[in-house]
Structures are given as structure tokens and as C-alpha cells.
Queue: 2 jobs
Job 1
Amino acid sequence: MLTEDLSSNILQQHRSVDAKMLILLTIHIVCAFAGFANAAQLTPVFEWNELTFNWPDKQTEEYALRSGQYVPANNLPLGLDRWKDKLFITVPRWKNGVAATLNYVDLKSSNKTPSLIPYPDWKSNTLPVGDQQPQEGTIISTFRVSVDSCDRLWVMDTGLADIWGEGKQHSTPAILIYDLNTDKLLKRYVMQSGDLKEDSFFANIVVDVTQGNCENAFAYIPDLGGYGIVVYSLQENNSWRVKHNFFHFDPLNGDFNVGGVNFQWTDGVFGLALGRIQPNGYRKLYFHALAAIREFSVSTEILRNKTAATDPASYFAYKLEGNRGDKTQSSASDLDEKTNVIFLTQLNKDSVACWNVDKPLNPQNLGTVAHDNQALVFTNDLKIDAERNLWILSDRMPAFLYRGLKPNEINYRIFKVTIDDAIMGTPCAR
């Protein structure tokens, strides 16, 4: 009897423990999913195992493959922006064999795996041979582009090819501006020697302009390697370099684990987002280093004035907005003026986040827009178009750089979601 009573008691205790464990497990699962319960449903637009291009003819493509001018595995999409029926996609020349660095796809096409069309044409995307000098319209390698409200495309050309290999500087970094209605090159501005540092690397460009005042445009170009921002005035056709401690990377947040790849980066200021126009006619420029988790800001009133921008006394005009939280390193950001919400990529979290700038920046006010540990591995770029759609590009870049991608898997994806759907149910909604 004693044995039976003891066994019965132990069984009851075991069942009680199991019940408690089940309750705790259920609570844990519910809480875990609650963080993503309001995540938006992204619309898949395009996907590729490897990129293909719209070659002039089959013979040209076959020659490019044989000669090594086109190595499909070496073409990785990185930046994007939209203008009407064109979705621009950049393919930096990380390695040899990039067919074209600036391209677009036709959004009217029903093909979910379209071939990229070089912009403005194949000739502009052809690398110089040997010691040939690039022509005026040649684009060597671009990471990010920016469509402005005056129907222009701004391209930041690094001038550097085979970046991950031997590296060849074909030309000085330059800004190229295109008229999107005619596809004609309006201007090529070559950066001045004072804009450049030994470790300079220009991989982003943001344009500050308003319709009806198109000539009074400014471009802000972060230098992630030289830890500065270069400001370019279209009207003055002049540029100046700005320095600040906030442009540097955070040594405590340079460790990344993305898609099963561990690596350490020291990238400085990279993500930029322009706020609404203030009563004084200027905006806030929100910015952050890639290897960091804090967000900062400065008024464009400082940046657009060369004297003020380069005056050490302007140091205290830069403000700390807040801390996004652990593992929130971001490669790109953009702001929706209607809602005052910034969207940010989240590299270590396979996700996209949002922050309403009318609220203090902290982990509690950082919302999750979308999360997917397969489809959103390395959300490299995002942009908001004129119709308030958020476009997101993921490309598994760490695997591409450090171990190679599998050509039988989907490696590159582009999604979109409306801004209102993206923030619904998140702390970013009012």
C-alpha cells in the first residue's frame, strides 16, 4: 500500500509539474509570437536564384560568359528605388563579372524573375578596358541611388571595381544625375580631393529638394569608411566634407551573425533619412552608423551652410535621438512624411523595424514591421516611393561575400507593403 500510495503521489506530482510546464510553455510561445503578431504581410514582387540581364542578343551574352565579363554568381543586387514603372536595382562590382551596375526592371511585367535592363544603356555600364579612361557617362560601380521629386535619378558612383578582390579605381568617386523623363545625363560631378580620405567609401546618397525649386538641391553622401558626410550643392556645383564623432562606428556593436555567417564590420555612418520640412524651411537629417545601434540627427540648416557645417562650434548641433536596442544594426532607413515614421533594416534580426520620430527612441517604441529568418536574411536596402509603398530588398550578402551562395536556392528577394499596413498594430502607429 505504501508503495502504491507513494507511486500515486509521485504520479500526481508529475502530472502537476507537467501541467505547470505546459502552461508556462504556452505562455512563452504566446509571448514570443506576440512580438510579431502585428508584423505586416509583405507582398513578394521579385525573386532570383541568380541575376540575369536583358542582353542585346544571345551571341553577346555567350561571349560575356566565355570571356568572364559576366559571371552570374558574382552579381548581387544591393540598392533599389522606384520611379513610375521603373524599379531601379544596383549591382555593385564586388567581384569581377558584373554585367551592369545600374539597372531597372519594368513593373508592368508579370514576370516574377525578370532580367535586369541596364540603365540608361549597356554602353554606360561597360567597364573601360586596360588603361582606358572612363567616358563622361560611364558608371563604374554603384551601391545606392535616389529618385527625387523632380523626376531625377541621383547615382553615387564609387569608381571602384573588383572591390572584394584586387580592387581597381577606374575613376574618382562621382555623382551622376539623370533626367528620368528623357534618360539623359544632366550632370556628372567629380568629388574634390578635400572630400576624400584614404579609407573613404561612398555607398549611399540622399537628396534634399522640393518640387518647384529643383535647382536648389542638396545631396548628402555618407562616408562609411572615412567617417564623414559629404554635402553637394547642385546650385553652387560645389561640395564640402563634414566630420563629427557621431559618424563613427560603435566598437561594442560591430559583431554580426546573419544567415549562419559570423563577421565583424567597422562601417561608420551609412543610413540616412530626411524628416519633414520644418517652419524654418529645413529638415532634420536622421543618421546612424551601420555598426551601431544608436540614432542621431542634425538640422540640414547646418549641413547646407558650408561655413556652419565645417565650423567646430557646430559640434553641439548634433543630437542623440536614442538607442534602438540590442542587435538592431541597420544598413538603410527612410522616413514617411505623412506619418513621421522611419523604417529601418535590421541586419542581425532578419527583419524590418519602424520608429515614430514623435516618440522617444527606445526598444519599446521600436516596432517590428516584418520578420522572416529565410526571406529577410540581410535586408540590405529599403525605400518609400511616391505612392507610399515600402520596398524592401534582401540579398544574403554575408554568405555571398564570405562563403558563396547556392544557385539552386532563392537568394535575392524584393517585397513591398503599403506604409499604413506596415505600421498597423505597431508602436509606430499613432
Job 2
Amino acid sequence: MSETGSHNDMAEPEEHLPATHGAHGTEAAVPGDPFANPGHPEHEFRRQDIDEKAAKHSERVVAGLFTLSMLGTLAFITSFVIFPVDKYIYVFPLGHVSALNFSLGLSLAVALIGIGAGAVHWARTLMSDEEMPDDRHRADADDELRANIEAQWVQGAKESAFGRRKLIRTTMLGALTLVPLSAVVILRDMGPLPQDKLRHTAWAKGKALINPNTNKPLRPEDIPVGSLTFAQPEGLNEEDEDFQQQIAKAALMVVRLKPEDIKDKKELDWSHQGIVAFSKICTHVGCPVSLYEQQTHHVLCPCHQSTFDLSDGARVIFGPAGHRLPQLRISVNGEGNLVAMSDFEVPVGPAFWERG
């Protein structure tokens, strides 16, 4: 075979290459090639795009769903008010369930589903669904790309008909405004506002210090120098429904020091014959402080080792606690029993809101 013939034989397969690449990196269509890029199909208009009557119908459907959401939110709030906690109803196939929980769950589901279904139906029937392909671009945006995005945003806002379809806009804003009220109602009913709940305890002027072991009032002669005992407010009983909540704030430790060992003048003025009373609740995370060291007058929190000096206003000398233990001002009444002269002047336990 001649060299010319060999050259022609080697060049012949080039005619059977499946595809070539265009200038933009996309494959050029080759007749008969099953893997060629077919491109985007021709855009098909929806009925709402060409029939204003159908578009109006879709608008009413979307507005109806948003209205249903508003009614669901109002039903949620109404159910929260009218149904007592202990009322039960029979619901097939669930059986007997709490009327309050069932109505709250059902009404909130209606409120949220109404917003979601309305938004989906709006997007599928009234907003533009035409695909707009674009080349992949760099991560950083140049001025031309920013201008293009702003133009697309304006075009999208225009095609959504948000400004033109007032019925949809009004009902959507109404639904989105009402739904957060569900959370507001539930959170507000959790109890008194935190500021009022945390700033006050069961202590008040004239309330006797009661020994929780004997349920009898504490007297100065019951507390020898160097000893530590605990106390609770007069009138607080373990049978009370809110006993745990009250004692968690009002728990008190009472220590008798020698008056000459007390360094803080305010602490000395608020004591009686060297008997001082401090909150038992640690100002770090609220653990009960109870480990007392007689020689140093230090008291230790067992949870995280915060240490307070009871001879110096219970200031923090070690550990993560951020504030000293609040002191309760005490005196004796006409019967010779130790009594409180007021409530704590500052909130007890862990600091909240950087208490002022």
C-alpha cells in the first residue's frame, strides 16, 4: 500500500466524530446523535396567562386560602380562651383527647396550611413560569451582573402582580399579620412577666423565719456562733400547690457570726446580734449553697465551686458566680422570734438582664 493510501485510511474516521463544541461550550446538534442537547422546549402558556377570567378565579382561590388562614388564627385564639384545660372530647379514631390541645393543633394547622397553599397556588397559576437560562458566572458580581439581577428582581415583582392584584396582597398581609398572634397568646399565658416573677419572693416585713425541720419560728438563742441553719418564710407549707416555686426563691440560710468579724457595715446593720441571713440560691445557675466553713466564714456552692464570704456581704471570692448572695434584713419581734424586715432588695438566684 502506498504512503498516500495509508494517509487517507488514517484520516477517514474523523468523519464519524459524534459531536463538536460550539463557542460557548455547548454541544452542537448533530443529525442522528441521541446524546445531543435538545435545548429548552417551547414555552407553553397556562390558561391563566391567556384568559383573564381564569386568572381572576385563581386570584379568588389564593385570597380564599389566605382568608382561611386568618380564620384559623382567630379560631386558635378563641379556642385558647374558651376551652378549659381539663375538658376532654371524643374524636374518632383518636378517642378521648383534650379539647384545648385538639382545637389548638387543628386551628394552627389550618392557619399555616392556608398560607402555604395560598403561596403555592399563587406561584403556580399567576406568577411567571417561563424558564430563563443563563450562563454560569463568577462568584463575585460585577456591575453588569448586579444591574442584571436588579432588572430581574423588578421584572419578577412586576410578573407576580403583587401590586396589581390587591385582593391577594390584602389577604396575604392579613394572614401573615395574624399568625404570629398565636405565639404571642401562648407565651403571654405562661405566667406573670419575668420581671415581676423574679423580683419578688414570699418574704415580707414581719414574716417569721421558720425552721423547716421543726416548723417552729427561729429565735436568736437557737443559733449558736459559728453554726449554719436554714429557714423558710412563715405561712409557707409543703402542702401548698406552689410550694416548690416559692421555696426555690425564698430558701434562706442563717449564720451567726461574731459582730466584730463582720466587715461590711450594711451587713452588720441588717443583722441581729451577729445573726445574718442570706439567700441560699447561688447567683450562678441557681444551685443550693450549703457548704459552710466556720473558720473562714466562707460558703461554697457544690455545683461549680462558687465561693462567697459571709463576713463581707457574701461577696464572690472564687468561681463563676457574677453577683454576691442577696442579704435579707432581719430583726426580732415582740415574741423574741427572728423576723424579716422586708423582701430581698435585689432578685435572688442567677442574674437576669444584667439586673440593674
